[in-house]
Design goal:
three-stranded mixed beta sheet, about 20% strand
Amino acid sequence: MVGAAEVLVEARASGVGGFSTTSRGGSNGRLCRILRRSPGVEFTTAALTLLSGCVGVFASPRGPSLSWGTHSQGALLGAVALPMEGDGYQVHPEWRARGRTFAIEELVAGLTRAFARVARTTPGSLAYVGDLSLRRGGDSSMHRSHESGRDVDVFYYAADRDGKPLHNLPAMLRFADDGSAAAWSSAKPGRRMREPLPDAHLDLPRTWALVANLLSDPNMEVQWIFVHKPLAELLVQEAEREKADPALLARAREILHQPTDARPHDDHMHVRVFCPVQSRVFGCIDKGPRRWWKKRWKYMSSAT
């Protein structure tokens, strides 16, 4: 019997799910044979049969949108592309060329709903999006995660000293613990920004509005929103000033979290959603400490 870990290794060697550049053919045929003789990995069989193009009961001309594996070792099937622009958002021009604009359908739909709601309730809002996943998931340079279509980076909203939202910035802004703009954060590591740093601050009302809409969406369940701890505290204080629903505020306190093994996320929010039910059936795995949440056990990972 072949275990799930062995199947994943074979998937990487066979070019499945974006794990390598090997073309379809003999290697994928070998993977199909391994899957079919491995009764111990039925959930893996379903997902990788679809990913590898094997003909069988799971074959579909279009296929569902599914996340397979974990956030840091996974794949994406039936990827949905986030449109470059939409109501209340755009993928930042500097991030578009990276090709990481794909995710599961639930995440793309949830993002577009949240951005649109923020734009409607706070006119002038425009969220900038960074990386999601590659079309087939798999290894994503500059990230420890973003492999299975359940992760997205969203810039913090920024405003000038008069509270006017700032648009068309050339890169992300890093924010100090007090919420003031401290430095540029480019899409290209090591690039020196020539543009002067604006006199700006973290736009707390708009950023909290986005967080609240993401957490309140009944069709998408957020696992974590990774943020710099002092900025998370500022967002919670904003929610308290706005007299947010106590249950929503309690949830935000749990989910707004500084990662323990990555940079502090002072230039963007990293949103991760739980495996949808149909993806979990096909081998999507929520990793992390086990907690009771919404009447069932959930794995809430602290790693990015």
